[in-house]
Amino acid sequence: LLSLFLLLLCCWSFFDSPFEQSLLKKALDKGLFSINIHNIRDYAAGKHKVTDDYPYGGGEGMVMKIEPIFNAVSYIKEENKKEGLSPHVILLTPQGKTLNQERAKALSLKKSITLICGRYQGVDERVRDLVADEELSIGDYILNGGETAALVVIESIARLIEGVIGCRDSTEEDSFSMGMLEYPHYTRPADFMGHMVPDVLISGNHKEIKKWRREKALDRTYRRRPELLERIDLSAEDKEIMEKIKKQKTVNSLHT
C-alpha cells in the first residue's frame, strides 16, 4: 500500500473531483493506495498562521516560509514511523528534474511519498536543504501552484500500482513505457467515411499485427520524438525497420 501525503496551500475542494472520478476513486475505495491532504497553515505559528513572507534582498512576489513546511513534514515522518515507514519527500518545482515514465515506475515502488506543493514566488531555499529528498517538475512551464502538478504525479504513479489498471499489459504498452511512442489504435467501425482500418488489424494474424504495431511505433517515434530512439536498445529487426523508414522519408521529401 502506497501512502501519499500532500502539503498544500489551497481550497480543499481543489482535489474533490479528481479523487472522486474514474480509476483513482476505484483504487482509493479498494485501498490500493491512500492520499492524505495536509494544509500547511495548520503547521504555521501565530494567530494568523502566516505561511509566506517577503523575500530577503527584495524582489517581486512572496516566498513560502521554511517553518510550516518543516513542521508539517516532521509530523508526517513521526506518523509514518509508527507504521515502520519513511516518507520520500518531493518538492514540486519547475527547477526539478522532469518527470518521465522511468521515474514514475521507480516512485510507484515507494511505500510512502510526501508531495510539497509550492506556491507564490517559490519556497525558502532551506526547504531544499533540510526537507526535500527530491525535486520534481512536470514540464518547462509555470503553474499558479503545485496542486495541478501533484495530480499529474499522483496519476502517473498510481496507475502503475498493481490492481489500479484492470489490464496490466495496457500499462506496459503505453507510450514511453516501451521507451518510445505508442502505435496507432483503431476500433469499430472498420469504415468511417471512407477512412479504413488497416487490413492487417482485422486479419487475425497476430504475428503480423505485432510486427505492424512495432513498425508503426518506431515510425511515429522517429517522426515525432526522434530523441527517444537514442535512449533505447534497438534489435537487429528494429534497425532494419528504421532503415526502411528513413529511406521512405527521403523518397517522400524528394516528391514534395
Given as residue ranges, the uncertain stretches (5+ residues, pLDDT < 50) are none
Series of H and E elements: EHEEEHEHEEHEHHEEHH
Q: Output mean pLDDT.
A: 90
Strand order of the largest sheet: 2-1-6-5-8
User: Tally of extended strands?
Assistant: 10
First-to-last CA distance = 55 Å
General shape: elongated
Q: SS-based structural class?
A: alpha/beta
- Tally of individual helices: 8
Strand content: 15-25%
Helix-residue proportion: 25-40%
Q: How many strands, what sense, and barrel or not for the largest sheet?
A: 5 strands, parallel
Give me the Rg, rounded. 23 Å
Explained architecture:
The protein has 256 residues and is an alpha/beta fold. It is 37% helix and 18% strand. The chain has helices at 22-30, 66-81, 101-108, 125-130, 146-158, 168-172, 206-224, 236-254; strands at residues 2-8, 33-39, 52-53, 63-64, 88-98, 112-117, 122-123, 134-137, 191-192, 195-196. It has a 5-stranded parallel sheet with strand order 2-1-6-5-8, with helices on both faces. Helix 3 (101-108) links the parallel strand 5 and strand 6. Helix 3 packs across helix 5 and helix 7 (206-224) packs across helix 8 (236-254).
